[in-house]
Design goal:
Elements: H1 2-34, E1 48-55, E2 70-72, E3 76-84, E4 96-103, E5 106-111, E6 113-114, E7 126-131, E8 139-140, E9 142-148, E10 154-157, E11 168-170
Parallel strand pairs: 2-11
Antiparallel strand pairs: 1-3, 3-7, 4-5, 4-9, 6-7, 8-11, 9-10
């Protein structure tokens, strides 16, 4: 009778192993089906843009390249941005970036330039300088940055909607 119990127990364990294996395979298939894909909005055709805002005084000035978001009329605002192709993880220096500043009922487009050069190859980003004009109202200045690479991929940067971190003109 003991040998029969052992035989029954081994059959039950074999069955449990098959059930666990089948359940694991089903879970793996479910995870694979739920993973992000280009169809679910994770397109690799869009550039990823990121950057910051700084003072753009001449080199040697104490405030040059200092992070800031509050500027007075006449002060130089520096935009530093990068545009990455998510497929390659790299940037294409021929990509065109443009800042679109919205204030006083108008939009001002400021083209950016590639900052990298032979003397400073580590500067793998684009820059643009905008001197706050006398007609700029005090308060938040909305802006976006758009990019287009030679292959036709595009991207757009919009700052966080947190008022304290927006580009702001002060007295």
């Amino acid at each position: 009778m003991q040998s029969q119990d052992l035989l029954d127990r081994s059959r039950r364990l074999g069955y449990l192993v098959r059930v666990k294996t089948l359940t694991g395979c089903a879970a793996l298939i479910l995870v694979a089906m739920l993973a992000p894909s280009p169809i679910s909005g994770q397109s690799k055709e869009h550039l990823v843009l990121f950057g910051d805002i700084v003072y753009f005084y001449p080199p040697g000035h104490a405030k040059n390249c200092l992070l800031n978001n509050q500027f007075k009329r006449g002060e130089p605002v520096g935009f530093r941005m990068n545009a990455i192709n998510p497929s390659s993880g790299k940037r294409d220096r021929a990509t065109e970036l443009v800042i679109h500043l919205n204030y006083a009922g108008k939009t001002v487009d400021v083209p950016m330039r590639d900052r990298q050069n032979e003397k400073q190859p580590e500067r793998e980003f684009w820059v643009a300088k905008w001197v706050v004009p006398d007609d700029a109202p005090t308060g938040i200045i909305r802006f976006t940055v758009t990019a287009k690479d030679p292959q036709g991929r595009t991207g757009e940067f919009k700052p966080f909607e947190v008022q304290a971190s927006q580009l702001t003109i002060v007295q």
